């Protein structure tokens, strides 16, 4: 596969994952709010997952569901582009360029571990999480 095709695959995978992250963002918002509310409160602000989603929508509208959306999109575009785009070149490098159908399961597993595991992308992409957080989005 030529370099242009690998780059195109990486960019497209990042964009698709960013679109999915945008649709799933309201679930992240309520998940984080539920995690951050005091477990010892006699009157918790959010009683449950779906009632919390409705409560956020009623009180804040769509903007409440979109809290932290920019950071999620940027994270997915960088993280997924690297993770998915690097898989095939790394698999080819490990296998010596053999045909994908003839590549051993262990080579595919190692390639997936390198590109999707913490040892490769966390050094390059988790800094995006830090630089996108100004502290105001810790509690959505």
Key phrases:
140 residues, mainly alpha, 6 helices, disordered C terminus
What does this structure look like?
This protein has 140 residues and is mostly helical. It has one domain (3-132). It has helices at residues 3-36, 49-60, 62-65, 69-95, 105-116, 118-132. It is elongated. Residues 126-140 have low confidence and may be disordered.
Give the end-to-end Cα distance, rounded to a whole number of Å. 43 Å
Biggest sheet overview: none
Percent range for β-strand residues: under 5%
Q: Compute the average pLDDT.
A: 82
Please count the helical segments.
6
How much helix is in the residues?
over 70%
N-to-C series of helices and strands: HHHHHH
User: How many domains comprise the coordinates?
Assistant: 1
Helix and strand composition category: mainly alpha
Radius of gyration: 19 Å
Catalogue the unreliable spans.
126-140
- Give a count of the beta strands, DSSP E runs of length 2 or more: 0
Shape field: elongated
Question: What is the secondary structure topology, with strand pairs?
Answer:
Blueprint: H1 3-36, H2 49-60, H3 62-65, H4 69-95, H5 105-116, H6 118-132
The gist of it:
The protein has 140 residues and is an all-alpha fold.
């Amino acid at each position: 596969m030529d370099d242009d095709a690998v780059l195109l695959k990486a960019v497209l995978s990042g964009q698709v994952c960013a679109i999915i992250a945008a649709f799933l963002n309201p679930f992240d918002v309520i998940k984080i709010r539920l995690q951050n509310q005091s477990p010892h409160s006699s009157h918790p602000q959010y009683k449950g997952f779906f009632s919390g989603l409705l409560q956020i929508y009623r009180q804040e509208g769509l903007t409440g569901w979109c809290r932290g959306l920019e950071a999620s999109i940027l994270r997915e575009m960088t993280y997924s582009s690297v993770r998915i785009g690097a898989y095939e070149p790394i698999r080819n490098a490990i296998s010596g360029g053999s045909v994908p159908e003839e590549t051993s399961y262990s080579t595919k597993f190692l390639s997936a571990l390198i590109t999707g595991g913490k040892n490769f992308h966390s050094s390059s992409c988790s800094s995006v999480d830090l630089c996108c957080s100004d502290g105001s989005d810790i509690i959505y």
